[in-house]
């Protein structure tokens, strides 16, 4: 220390006090041998008050142990470097207060003695500014997040509004479409009803008029022919009315199915007996074989409605001298009924519409019909867990396949 002091007086005195950074010189035992004026001011000591003191006096007590470890490593391999890189360093003032510092270490040798010069900077103001900048950045990030969130919310609200408006627009379009469709159906319905009722009523009127002219006994066959015509026309009108009533009940949900056990033959016999009055010249209905044991638990009136529609359609759309074949069998829990004809068939491009209400294929427009029978059949069967399918080829014929649950 004496060597350093003598050299310090001659060489370093002016330099120490001219440097704005705090300079603290320690020996290898970490004893302070010199401080400049800036260091004294930074740590709150008077001139020469720190000489001879251990460096620990300027370091927070809780950092002494770790500081000793770092200092020993530094002394073993001394080189110019900053202390605490990547860590926050603190100094301790005379009044015991701690403050942040930045320290640079510079080892040197005078004669045979080794020393370390510590360049100390009080970075309290810098840390304050850094903290303020950090706070500003945090606030800025918070504002950005808030604004982003507000913008995102505004975008979501806008998207929701667009979706709502689009939905409302689609609903309006759908309502307009349904209204147009309903108007078209009403027009078609009125036209169809007018035609379907007018034609058979005209036939009934004509036959009634002619019957009155056939008064002789030998004209009995002619009277019977017209009476059969009247009965057939009345039956046709009755079927149409039944169809209309079924549509109304299905639409309003007022269909009440009355289940009972009954043999299939009971209903099928009634349907075929009535259908015989509608047969064209040379037409024949082939009755199904081996069905006496088939018993259903179903609504017999609904089954009669289904079979009447299918058999009457087969008669209507088949030519004279053709065969309508009815088949039935049981498989697992279902009863299968098939009605086959040799009629005009359904065009392939129109088959997907065949169960739509009031739809009639182009090749069937000249025949009487309402276009609601198959729609009614499909609706009833779906209500009770059954189904209807078909295969058809134009100008060859059609086969309609009904499946009804046994229970």
Automatic annotation (TrEMBL):
Catalytic activity line of the entry: ATP + protein L-histidine = ADP + protein N-phospho-L-histidine
Domain of life where this protein originates: Bacteria
Coiled-coil zones: 137-188
All residue ranges annotated as the PAS domain in the record: 8-78
One matching Pfam family: HATPase_c
Key word Lipoprotein present: no
Assigned EC number: 2.7.13.3
Keyword Cell membrane: no
Gene3D superfamilies in the record: 1.10.287.130, Histidine kinase-like ATPase, C-terminal domain (3.30.565.10), PAS domain (3.30.450.20)
Enzyme class: transferase
UniProt keyword annotations, A-Z: Coiled coil, Kinase, Phosphoprotein, Transferase, Two-component regulatory system
Protein name (Swiss-Prot/TrEMBL): histidine kinase
Upper lineage: Bacteria, Pseudomonadati, Bacteroidota, Flavobacteriia, Flavobacteriales
């Amino acid at each position: 220390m004496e060597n350093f002091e003598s050299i310090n007086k001659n060489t370093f005195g002016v330099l120490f006090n001219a440097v704005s950074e705090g300079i603290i010189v320690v020996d290898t035992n970490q004893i302070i041998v010199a401080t400049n004026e800036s260091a004294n001011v930074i740590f709150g000591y008077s001139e020469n008050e720190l000489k001879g003191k251990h460096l620990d006096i300027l370091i927070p007590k809780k950092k002494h142990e770790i500081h000793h470890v770092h200092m020993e490593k530094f002394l073993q391999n001394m080189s110019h470097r900053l202390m605490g890189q990547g860590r926050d360093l603190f100094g301790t003032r005379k009044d015991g207060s701690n403050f942040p510092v930045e320290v640079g270490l510079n080892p040197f040798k005078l004669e045979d003695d080794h020393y370390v010069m510590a360049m100390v900077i009080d970075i309290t103001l810098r840390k304050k500014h850094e903290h303020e900048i950090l706070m500003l950045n945090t606030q800025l990030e918070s504002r950005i997040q808030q604004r982003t969130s507000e913008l995102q919310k505004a975008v979501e609200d806008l998207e929701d509004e667009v979706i709502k408006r689009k939905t409302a627009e689609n609903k309006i379009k759908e309502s307009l479409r349904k209204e147009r469709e309903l108007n078209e159906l009403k027009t078609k319905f009125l036209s169809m009803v007018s035609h379907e009722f007018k034609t058979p009523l005209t036939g009934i009127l004509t036959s009634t008029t002619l019957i009155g002219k056939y008064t002789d006994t030998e004209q009995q066959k002619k009277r019977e022919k017209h009476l059969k015509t009247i009965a057939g026309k009345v039956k046709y009108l009755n079927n149409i009315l039944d169809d209309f009533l079924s549509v109304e009940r299905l639409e309003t949900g007022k269909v009440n199915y009355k289940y009972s056990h009954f043999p299939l033959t009971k209903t099928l016999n009634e349907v075929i007996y009535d259908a015989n009055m509608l047969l064209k010249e040379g037409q024949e209905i082939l009755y199904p074989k081996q069905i006496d044991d088939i018993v259903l638990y179903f609504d017999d009136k609904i089954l009669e409605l289904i079979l009447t529609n299918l058999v009457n359609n087969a008669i209507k759309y088949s030519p004279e001298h053709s065969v309508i074949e009815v088949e039935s069998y049981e498989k697992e829990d279902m009863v299968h009924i098939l009605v086959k004809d040799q009629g005009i068939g359904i065009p392939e491009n129109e088959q997907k519409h065949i169960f739509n209400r009031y739809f009639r294929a182009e090749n069937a427009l000249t025949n009487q019909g309402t276009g609601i029978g198959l729609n009614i059949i499909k609706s009833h069967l779906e209500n009770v867990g059954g189904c209807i399918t078909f295969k058809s080829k134009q100008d060859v014929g059609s086969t309609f396949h009904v499946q009804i649950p046994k229970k």
